[in-house]
Specification:
Shape: globular
Number of domains: 1
Structural class: mainly alpha
Number of helices: 9
Length: about 250
């Protein structure tokens, strides 16, 4: 029994992480509205920039650990596009870009300090963050490009489905997955090449690229129910806000 569960540790942790992260995103939106989604973007951007340094094997594939947190940023922009506006979705992208730039500057400044004689943590900090500028800059560039493409595609799909069926609310699943799955191809290919070229051989790069995209396919399909739930949350918040205005 132990050996079975032991061999599935990474898989269990990844599935659990997906549930917790998507669930926390919906909770943040329910409590704080779009401000909560911006907060999730900040957390996801910083965490994913660190986690992408960790390579794990799960579901028979080698992958970077930051895939799930990167995926939630696409969920955030889709919720903002659906419930608020294209402008708000693009604002989340800019929040993510600003967060990455700010974090890169701060984390690299740590390397400039001379630790005291009693310090014991600086070698560990240096071993992690001295190797991250390339990863973080790659992540920043790819994030900005793929997220901008995702927002554009979401609204392009939306215009197409609304024109074909005459209903603005229908085909949420199509614009959600149609935008994310296409933009994730760009995200996966660019990040793998920018971040790992010269570090791994070509077969390993292709393996990372394929496994990352498979994970993004799964997370994209899994976030579809979350987008539907978020739309319900947004509708309830709007009704509550409208009733409050009427009472006032």
């Amino acid at each position: 029994m132990y050996s079975v569960f032991g061999s599935l540790t990474n898989e269990i942790l990844l599935v659990g992480s997906l549930i917790v992260i998507f669930g926390s995103t919906l909770l943040a939106y329910r409590i704080f509205g779009k401000v909560g989604l911006y907060a999730v973007t900040v957390i996801a951007t910083i965490t994913a920039n660190i986690e992408c340094l960790i390579m794990v094997e799960a579901f028979g594939m080698e992958q970077t650990l930051g895939n799930v947190f990167f995926a939630v940023t696409f969920l955030v922009t889709d919720i903002l596009s659906e419930n608020h506006s294209k402008k708000e979705a693009n604002k989340a992208v800019m929040v993510g870009v600003f967060t990455s730039v700010f974090f890169i500057i701060i984390s690299q400044s740590w390397m400039l300090y001379v630790p005291s004689a009693s310090d014991f943590i600086m070698p560990s900090i240096s071993s992690v963050f001295s190797n991250t500028p390339r990863m973080m800059i790659s992540s920043l560039v790819v994030y900005a490009i793929s997220q901008a493409v995702d927002v554009q595609l979401y609204h392009a799909w939306w215009k197409l489905t609304e024109r074909l069926c005459g209903n603005k609310k229908k085909f949420l699943w199509l614009r959600n997955n149609g935008s994310t799955l296409i933009s994730q191809i760009l995200n996966t290919a660019l990040f793998t090449l920018f971040a790992f070229w010269g570090t791994y051989d070509v077969p390993t790069l292709l393996s990372i690229m394929w496994s990352s995209y498979v994970i993004f396919i799964v997370t994209s399909l899994c976030d579809t129910p979350a987008v539907y739930i978020a739309r319900k949350i947004g509708e309830k918040r709007s009704k509550k806000a409208d009733s409050g205005k009427e009472e006032a």
